[in-house]
User: Fold this.
Amino acid sequence: MAYSFPEEVLEHVFSFISSEKDRNAVSLVCKSWYEMERWCRRRIFVGNCYAVNPKIMIRRFPEVKSIELKGKPHFADFNLVPEGWGGYVYPWIVEIARGYPCLEEIRLKRMVVTDESLELISKSFKNFKVLVLSSCEGFSTDGLAAIAANCRNLRVLELRECEVEDLSGHWLSHFPDSCTSLESLNIACLLSEVSFSALERLVARSPNLKTLRLNRNVPLEKLSTLLQLAPQLVEFGTGVYSAEIRSDVYASLTEAFSGCKNLKGLSGFWEVIPAYLPAFYSVCSRLTTLNLSYATAQSPELTKIVSQCHNLQRLLVLDYIEDTGLNALALSCKDLQELRVFPSDPFVADANVLLTEQGLVSVSEGCPKLQSVLYFCRQMSNSALITIANNRPNLTCFRLCILEPRAPDYVTFEPLDAGFGAIVENCKQLRRLSMSGLLTDRVFEHIGTHGKKLDMLSVAFAGESDLGLHHVLSGCDSLRKLEIRDCPFGDKALLANASKLETMRSLWMSSCGVSFGACKLLGEKMPGLNVEVIDERENLDSLHESCPVEKLYIYRTVAGQRFDMPDFVRTMGKDGGGGVPIKC
Amino acid sequence: MDGTLGLLGGIHGGADGGGGGDGGGVPSCGSILTNSKEDDTMNDQDMLAEVSSSYPVDDDLELGLGLRIGGGGSNAIQEGSRILRPNSCSSSSSSSSVNITNSSIAGFKKSAIDSVSPPNAASVVGWPPIRRAHRMPILANRIKSERKEYSSRAKSYLSVKVNMDGTLIGRKVDLNAHNSYETLARTLENMFYGRLSNTETIGRSRLLSGTSEFVLTYEDKDGDCMLVGDVPWQMFVSSVKRLRILRSPKSRNCI
Assistant:
């Protein structure tokens, strides 16, 4: 017999539980907890928009205030998902407009968002506050104008790396004069010019503005104007950081920056003129985040900057920083948690930048809190990887991209199995891993044995046989996302581990060796999975059983197959056949 | 539901069927070597044993991972491999397990070194994995840096005129030979030695510190007369047109 607290007490306790995982666990305890929990859940995260039906969601959770949806698979970022594949948000907006009139927040990632959707959002939720679109596409500045005009209490409007059709810079003027609630505005991805006077007025009447990320077209000369209107900013993204060199511009910029006492994060910096860099030196010691990943400054300038950022926690930078700059980083930034180094010229064999594995080794030695790494380089060795693994067993995210596919250890010419093996073995909390270079089935054995906390694995041009895939699918207990390209994995491991796929969010395999017949079989036997075959080369109706498919995307779902697919996508095994799509 | 074992009853014939496949989407994985020279075949068998013990073997199971000893299994290995890896080592697998003999190790190793000529990074779709936002600036930067290199080579000698109050004959100084105000000032003092002051060469240049009876100024792009030393060096170099050493403000009203 269970005694229970009154509902109000339990509800109050539940209100402290915010993580989805914990909430899901709470709802499994007993019927009454399930009931109580579902009424007080306020945030929903849907990692795959095709995994669940919005109607089901609304029925179970009637009082949601915040929704986050993700659409296309991660490899869509690299052009591997053909256009038209899917990820349309409109059907979701229609349902949640009906079901959640009090919704306040919408966050979308890798979805196709139309102007219609934006308009519907702007008109359906009277208390709408937050719109964050990451890597989305399909809309224009007209849609943004609707949001600006109709969302009276808008606090956050962030466009992160979206593809927006720029029809006019005047959409900003659609924010009514009465709108003073803005806290965060990120328009960095917009390609054309926004009306500066509208921007200026907006900033001037937004006393709570904490984040402002401009796009390239806001000239350097105008930055000081904005900074002086908003000295309370915490995060600031410049436009193009270049202008004719004038000492008056320099002086006012310097003064404006030093007036921003709360500035913790800087970004932007397209096309840097080095002479203007010292203008923000005064804020360096307070910075916790610095995104210089578009900055064309050279190593000496970058070194000078990082050497002053003693509180830096997160750095994004181009490989112009070189090993010397990373050495300086290791010496100066003891709080560093995340490092991302991007290639300035990825398509040439020999770049002029002196960035090697050594830079990463230095940072791993010098920065005890380093947890997350994304590193593009041209050479790597097992010994460097082993050193990194020994230095930093606290790594949670390790993504290494050696630019040349299948590049071996540049010293010994061996595969990099031992190096990556050391990473998974030593870094027991590793949740995310991306590998590159020459890799055999051995590395997968290591991953299967040691990668028990691994949540996401990205593999390219690696492995030799199905044994590799089998190791991962059978060994990685926490695996939820697996994405593979150009690896010699076929049907066997996939079919042998079919039930594993139901415990994962999704599996992507492209340019591998999985046959059409195996996909059909999988789709037929596993009703809880959507097995999507994506093939633009062949007519899917005439594909032979033994033919390897071009791309395969498998995800678990309770929503059944979808019906918004283009003709080069089939959901296998549903409706007793190849799952004929309806053109939408 | 036992999703794994029961599932595979049907695929015995199917999936392994011809090396049909294609070359198209599947790259030649050619000469990838599993083991270094030191490793012997024992390792493979250990590996296989480990896999087979952790994974329940079913007679119907057609994994082709080397778990099946003899019989139909090995055919499957060969077939499967042939689809995917033309140069696979399973040509020797007519017997029990996938065995890499020493000779093939040597052979593979050689070719691993010679011919790791994987797809050229530039021609592979979606490789390297960089998001669009980071791709565009890259090309623009390359063009820019090429231009910068060119123009900085052309400007390797940047000389400006220097005139001093009370001196008819001016001098020229190469600004690119200096990287700070200090060295410039010292050079100027040396050039006009004896006229500036009874200079002690230790300590900061008196021209810059304001303790000399002369003051160092420059004419900028706009034609204005400016005091030297206010802006960062690089900025100064980009905007200076000529230098003038003037008597101190008490006697001139320039500044």
The helical segments of chain B are 11-14, 41-54, 72-84, 102-114, 132-154, 181-191, 206-209, 233-239. Chain B is about 35% helix and 10% strand. Residues 132-154 of chain B form the longest helix (23 residues). Chain B touches chain A through 77 residues (CB under 8 Å).
